[in-house]
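A student in our group prepared the protein record below, which I am reviewing. I have pasted the whole thing underneath without changing anything:
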Amino acid sequence: MFAVPITAIAEELGTSLMKNMVASGASWALLGLPMEVFNKAVEEEFGRKGAAIVEKNIEAVRRGGEFVLEQAGGPLEEFKLEPADGKQKLFMIGNEAMGLGSVAGGCRLMSAYPITPASEIMEYLIKKLPKFGGTVVQTEDEIAAVTMAIGANYAGVRTMTASAVRTRPHDGSDRLVGYDRDPSCHR
């Protein structure tokens, strides 16, 4: 076992902001992953910021990996992953998956107040819903978000909201669960 000076390596490259990339490189080395996978991911993530940023981040990944391989005396076969099937996979956080699922399920409106977990779902849907004829509306509070979702549903729009609070009596959220255009879903 050995320590990896992630922040120090990043700072040697100019900024501690690249410490996640150094850590990714250390992981790459531990797991025996091909460097090309990381290069492609870095290019996809940072390409819009320019070639210099892409190269700096690739260098951070490389340096993190080289440090681990140097300390370990070479590849660590006991941690090496089996080759992947070659199919591209989705890589997202849970709140993005919630957003993707809502779009796939036909949601065309999200009314929400920006508070965790709603903020990440909102950010995802702000980018995605317009491509499907939908929109996100930021409301003044969570009660407004709930009542807007109910109203839109009554108008025939598949909608969603997200909140950080439990339902309260008479805030409208007790009527939201299970609503759909199918009248059998209504109480």
Remarks:
- Strands lie at 109-112, 135-138, 159-160.
- The longest strand covers residues 109-112.
- Residues 177-187 have pLDDT under 50 and may be disordered.
